[in-house]
């Protein structure tokens, strides 16, 4: 009876205080998540306020919140949709996790922490919080492509987190993790996912369709929540995150086609226990520990926010998303959460870290949780600002890059190109694996090899290690060159797939766009391969020579990219001149100022491939764009489409400036992806 009383007291305290703080934050027009965290801080054990809830009971209830939040998220993403965003989101997640593990490791070493403590720190800040982002997106009604990209990245991050925990356990226990152990861990995870999804697809959609046909909402709710908790329990039984199991359960229910109805029924229960989860996060905030470790907390918070914004934005952009969407994704993922607590707790239980790491992880998570809703809310204006501040050549490249990737995805040669790309990517990964083996092997075996050589050659214990390191560097150098060269070949194959060369000896007018695309793809591929190698080998290399080598390589390719992007700017101006002439000729042919037919720029697209599939749009008297400058309209920042040229009567405007005022009757030539152009047409009215 005493346990029941304690449970009731904890639940009543949590919900009553959360209700008051939520109303307060709604009146202040602030995210309610912040109100929940404040409620947790008030009823937590660390402040002298006589409102204390049992942390154990609250933590148990918060687990239900995590499960239901992830289940609701899965209802929005059927497996088909998840597989569509999976490849691009997976690359972005690998880049982001690699960058953060490396940054966390060097930050820990800078504070004088041990190698293991620094490694755990890097892993703690690598995984973003799916639960926090899901709640913030629901609260701010974020939908569409941005939500799909972010959720795909989060799911892959959770899978990476599982692998990181397995490797950290092996390293901390002193057994190490061989290639066989890693392959077994990955295979076991893959078998679990394939088994759960395969059996689930056979059972769950049929069951949910049968239940919903009964037209009994109560039965539908009980069945769907039962499936949710069954998936979470199954994942936990196999040693994986309950969040992963709940998300997959939601995706399986969504395959039935009844996801919207189930989501509507589950929402009140989800909101109730989701509030308890965020209250539990607030209860972990300890002002005394924050004061004690304030320097590490401040530095790691900055590393999390800045590192995740940059790494996710770059990864999302290179995988084919526009500037706006990429920057918004980076701002959305700039926090850590529940996985960080798990990894920090693992280090504590394995006695691999000091007691300081867990409260530091909690504090960084709490602070970044507080900043997340504001960053998501500000992501649109920040993305617009970034777009405006980019140099003109980068603006041109960014606006066209998405259309080139779209061309590649819809190319009739996609299967042939895909096979060659997979083969080249495999060769790059093999080169990266050899570099990793050489670096780790040299680091681990250096004392034994040095002693062995010194006994036979007598070079001295000071000189011999440097000779061994030099030989290892010489051995690794061909593989480094191989990655750069294969990245170039990969870029050439992809660029030719997106922008085929002219046939029959004709002048190749796509040469300038293809050249910049080749260099950009080479830069992206070397970055995507080099960063994970750097993250894996950093614990075995004293100092930052690996980072210097990677940065120098990227710098050289970056210089070549800048020259190519500058040449592309000139190509675009020539294309704009051709477009203006085509529009003028069409106007003379029709003898009026009506909007040109849909294929008026077809000849231009054939003559100048690579300028973004231009389409023309006429501004009517009622258009909301009339009388506004392009800067005020912010068309490129809002939609990703670029205004290549404007035809106004008999005069043409070549690549108009941001201060160009639009008038009724103007005909705008737009370039970008089909989605961007459609969005721009909606804005232009």
Gist?
The chain has 685 residues and is mostly helical. The chain folds into three domains: 373 residues, Na+/H+ antiporter like fold; 185 residues, no CATH class; 106 residues, Regulator of K+ conductance, C-terminal domain (Alpha-Beta Plaits, 2-Layer Sandwich). Helices cover 76% and strands 3% of the residues.
Commentary on this structure:
There is one protein chain. With 685 residues, the protein is mainly α. The chain has three domains: 1-44 and 61-389, Na+/H+ antiporter like fold, CATH 1.20.1530; 393-577, no CATH class; 579-684, 2-Layer Sandwich (Alpha-Beta Plaits), CATH 3.30.70. 76% of the residues lie in helices and 3% in strands. It has helices spanning 2-27, 32-43, 55-76, 79-110, 115-124, 130-139, 145-172, 179-213, 217-237, 242-254, 259-283, 287-292, 294-318, 323-332, 338-349, 357-389, 392-410, 414-457, 463-498, 511-537, 545-590, 602-607, 630-633, 635-639, 674-684, and strands at residues 615-618, 642-648, 651-654, 667-671. The protein has a four-stranded antiparallel β-sheet with strand order 1-4-2-3, with helices on both faces. A hairpin with a 2-residue loop joins strand 2 (642-648) and strand 3 (651-654). The chain is globular, with a radius of gyration of 28 Å.
Keywords for this structure?
mainly alpha; Na+/H+ antiporter like fold; Alpha-Beta Plaits; 3 domains; 4-stranded antiparallel sheet; 76% helix
